[in-house]
Amino acid sequence: MGMTFAEKVLGKAAGYAVKAGDVVTVEPHFCMSHDNAAPIAKTFRKIGVPKVWKPDHLVFILDHAIPAPTDEHAVNHKEIREFVEEQGIPHFYDVTSKGGVCHQKMCEEGFALPGLIIIGSDSHTCTYGAYGAFSTGIGRSEMAAAWATGKIWFRVPESLKITVKGKFNKGVSAKDLILKIIGDIKADGADYMSVEFHGPAISEMTLAERMTLCNMGIEMGAKNAVCPPDQKVLDAIRGIEKTNEWEAIWADEDAVYAKELTYDLGELVPCVAKPHTVDNYAPIEEVKGTKIHQAFLGSCTNARIEDLRLAADILKGKEVAVRTIVIPASWRVYRQALDEGLLEIFLDAGCVITNPGCGPCMGNHEGILAPGEACISTANRNFKGRMGNKDSFIYLASPMTVAASALKGEIADPREVL
Amino acid sequence: MEQNVLRGKAWVFTDDVDTDLIYHNKYLAETDPKKMAQYSFEYYPGKEKFAKEAKPGDFVVAGRNFGTGSSREHAVYCLKELGIPVVLAESFARIYYRNAINNGYPVLFVKGLSDAIKEGKIQDGDELEVNISTGEIKDLTNGHTFHGDAVTDLEKDIMASGGLIEYLKAQAAKK
């Protein structure tokens, strides 16, 4: 009987064959933390182990509130710098022009590699499945324990196979696909599961598009989400690998799945997730004309160069009707956007460009909403109050839909401006 | 009454209660559990006064996918600190569940709870009797009973130690 991706990766790490339902204890290849490395360090000290198990297996990337907007954040950052120094942690991305959103950095710096087990103290750690890694978000206590012991337990998850075929129509992108899937199977539709994306349309997709899909795996409850480690992945990681322990691992043809779904890209339309849940799917027709007060193009879901190009294409030579915040996913993306003239297009259109980081996505700073205001956003969550005010409204959409809506000041169909 | 049989009032929530509703991201920089407790469910419509009015020993009762969203452990700490002895839900989001176990905080998976809430069979203020060992739940106000799943052995060990960190300390001390 064939094995799923999760069974193969966890079995390899455990050193014996495993199947869904087994509990294994494994050593993670990388442990990623962002600004929450500070409270984790506090918990770590309580364990009584003086040194972390392997300093070079820890990766710290500041992104949630940078540069520090409050004294609490500033203290957190300071504590992280002190911990990095004390423990000799080599992989630290501070508030500099080498940084960016943690999940973007993990991929562009060669930490996200096929077949690796990566844990992160952030729920969107599942993003690295785009590079064929088994990656999942965990809590802070668990991360502190992993720093101390180099071990983490997992229940080998059941798997959901999603086969994707066909081609996107004009104005439709990976974000529309993942919002449709989550709308169909709901916020707990893949609870505890490993989601595998298969099919010719996934092979056609760029790594940026695959990252958008895997990033939102958690929004359907998944433990991890993953795409095949094909030639595109191998090309992307060549020369930047932070370890040579990786191996391209993929599910067997005859693997057994708890559930299987098939999608045809040709049947998709531009869409949004309405407030206040990610599974509140609506085709663009249903929400077109809804007044918005802010547009946000950013976050670990949709702020890569490919996303910025799609938005710039729509904004070029025009002017936005509402305040529009653009936050490239990393300074590398920022520079590339600068070189390609995209930042100039955004500036000419009236957008505000801020430094790479999470920005307003979880309501820390740089674009908090007022009561009664609505924002259309390329991020991954629209929970009540997510952008800082509980009486505001967040619509999730693709970069194209966000750009088209920014121009009109209301939710708009990108097909009408392309 | 046995120690594992608890009595308290029900505070009833819907399906898909996300981490921002339990503990809003605005307070993420907070590190004092006592302060965290004051913010519990502040963003949940109709339950804004939960933190003030819930009494130690009251129960949080919810539908499917409780704790969906962020990995923040504040969403566990705040309820634990308030003295809510256990969360009863049809199901839990994966990270919330792990965070609860790892902090020695019991959660019970209770079949049929989501529908029972929607049908009004269990309501705010109902007096509940919960047996943590067997998972049996009696709604003493309206007579319905529910059955929760027992936890696994590893989870029991971690919870018996008071959480993952305490568990690891105990393991290390044994060596």
Which features characterize this protein?
heterodimer; A: 418 residues; alpha/beta; 5-stranded parallel sheet; 14 helices; 31% helix; B: 175 residues; 8 helices; 7 strands; 17% strand; globular
Write the layout of secondary structure elements.
The complex is a heterodimer of chains A (418) and B (175).
Chain A: H1 5-14, E1 23-26, E2 30-33, H2 37-47, E3 58-61, H3 71-87, E4 91-93, H4 102-108, E5 117-120, E6 134-137, H5 140-149, E7 152-155, E8 159-165, H6 174-185, E9 194-198, H7 200-204, H8 207-215, E10 224-226, H9 231-237, E11 259-264, E12 271-273, E13 281-283, H10 284-287, E14 294-297, H11 305-315, E15 323-326, H12 331-339, H13 342-349, E16 352-353, E17 374-377, E18 393-396, H14 399-408
Parallel strand pairs in A: 2-3, 2-5, 3-4, 5-6, 8-9, 8-11, 9-10, 14-15, 14-17, 15-16, 17-18
Antiparallel strand pairs in A: 1-7, 12-13
Chain B: E1 5-12, H1 19-22, H2 33-38, H3 50-53, E2 59-62, H4 74-82, E3 87-89, H5 94-102, E4 107-109, H6 113-118, E5 127-131, E6 136-139, E7 145-147, H7 153-161, H8 164-174
Helix pairs in contact in B: 7-8
Percentage of residues in strands of chain A: 15-25%
Overall body shape of chain A? globular
Q: What's the pLDDT, averaged over the residues of chain A?
A: 97
SS element count, helices of chain A: 14
What structural category do the secondary elements of chain B indicate? alpha/beta
Largest interface: A-B, 47 and 39 residues
Please give the share of residues in helix of chain A.
25-40%
Short account of what is shown:
The complex is a heterodimer of chains A (418) and B (175). Chain A is an alpha/beta fold. Chain A has helices at residues 5-14, 37-47, 71-87, 102-108, 140-149, 174-185, 200-204, 207-215, 231-237, 284-287, 305-315, 331-339, 342-349, 399-408, and strands at 23-26, 30-33, 58-61, 91-93, 117-120, 134-137, 152-155, 159-165, 194-198, 224-226, 259-264, 271-273, 281-283, 294-297, 323-326, 352-353, 374-377, 393-396.
